[in-house]
Write a structure and sequence with these properties.
Layout lengths: L2 E3 L6 E3 L1 E4 L12 H13 L4 E3 L7 H4 L4 H6 L1 E6 L4 H15 L4 E6 L5 H6 L1 H12 L3 E8 L2 H6 L8 E4 L13 H13 L3 E4 L12 H10 L5 E5 L3 H11 L18 E3 L9 H5 L5 E3 L5 E3 L9 H5 L5 E3 L1
Parallel strand pairs: 3-4, 3-10, 4-5, 5-6, 6-7, 7-8, 8-9, 9-10
Antiparallel strand pairs: 1-2, 11-14, 12-13
The protein binds iron/sulfur cluster (2 copies).
The site of one iron/sulfur cluster (SF4) has 13 residues, from helix 12.
């Protein structure tokens, strides 16, 4: 597995980053033991880069790993915290949960615009302090927004950017594929660390998985690609594609089915939390107070599932 230095941070990361959202309680819901074994298996295949987040509830999979396994890992996590104290708690609670002294990268999760960044300025101050204290090594931001990715050139305090990007632009906010491509190029050329998310648009592009992953593998303006994974066979195929040794016979290792968000209206309390949670604007309120869904815009991130107090949304 090729290892790249993550922009100005100089952190060596495998080109394939293991995205833990899919294995976790919001989606496949692997047991702690199975999830932990999957992380160790990936590490043995040469993957050293792992993406998690407070929201994903996947910290417990890291905890049982040995100190030497954790030492070999580059771990990225994220938080939605607004205040100084909440961000400090996010970082410290996260470190306790994974049982490690530091995160390699810590991010503001899913930012939409310069306005939302401004709203998190106290949280950024906490991240700067945590970096001085050695609790994190680099500061970053994750986003689906083309506009914000473009505007990050004005914010060198963020050293690492984790933008949504795939061959067809599925799931992008506030701009086109071409504009995101240009924004990512600009950041890359200005030495930001770049790793991209959702090469398969959260599973929506599963039919053309080889073309999608090959495109992202060959995309020159990134240091790594995060791919959500839930079993050993998927990892084997992903690694083979990234290492350019995929063979058609490997297709049988995959269960190629479309992932969908399933809404159970009989459980819904019409609190509308999911509407504000979904930055892709998939969910809206109809005139008679019901929910309407524009599934073409959905990237199957599962964030609405985490926000629903009634368990009325599930991923299938
Ligand atoms: S509907 Fe849910 S899964 Fe789909 S993009 Fe919105 S938050 Fe993500
Ligand atoms: S968050 Fe859940 S309960 Fe609230 S409106 Fe959405 S689906 Fe219904």
């Amino acid at each position: 597995m090729r290892v790249n230095l993550l922009g100005c941070t100089g952190i060596p990361v495998s080109e394939l980053c293991f995205g833990t959202l899919v294995m976790g309680p919001l989606q496949a819901n692997l047991s702690i033991q199975d999830g932990s074994e999957l992380l160790a298996y990936s590490l043995d295949l040469g993957i050293n880069f792992f993406d998690t987040a407070e929201l994903y509830l996947t910290y417990p999979y890291f905890k049982p790993l040995t100190p030497s396994q954790k030492q070999r890992m580059v771990i990225n996590s994220k938080s939605y915290a607004y205040t100084y104290q909440d961000m400090m708690e996010s970082i410290e609670n996260g470190l306790k949960a994974i049982d490690r002294d530091y995160f390699d990268i810590f991010m503001l999760h899913e930012q939409e615009s310069l306005l939302t960044l401004k709203g998190h300025q106290e949280a950024v101050r906490a991240m700067v302090k945590a970096k001085e204290q050695g609790k994190i090594r680099a500061i970053g931001v994750s986003t689906h927004s083309v506009q914000l990715t473009n505007d990050l050139l004005l914010h060198p305090e963020f050293e690492v950017v984790f933008p949504l990007f795939n061959r067809v632009g599925q799931g992008l906010l506030h701009g086109t594929f071409e504009e995101m491509n240009q924004a990512i190029q600009n950041l890359y050329l200005h030495h930001f660390g770049i790793f991209t998310m959702k090469p398969l648009a959260g599973g929506r592009l599963y039919r053309s998985f080889l073309e999608e992953l090959t495109y992202m593998r060959d995309y020159p303006y990134k240091h790594a690609i995060a791919i959500g994974t839930k079993n050993k066979n998927e990892i084997l195929v992903d690694v083979a594609i990234i290492e350019n040794r995929y063979e058609e016979s490997m297709k049988g290792l995959l269960q190629l089915t479309e992932k969908k968000i399933f809404y159970r209206s009989e459980l819904c309390a019409f609190c509308y939390t999911c509407i504000t949670t979904c930055s892709s604007k998939v969910i809206s309120r109809t005139e008679d107070g019901k929910l309407a869904f524009d599934w073409d815009k959905c990237c199957c991130c599962g964030y609405c599932i985490a926000s629903c107090p009634q368990f009325a949304l599930r991923v299938l």
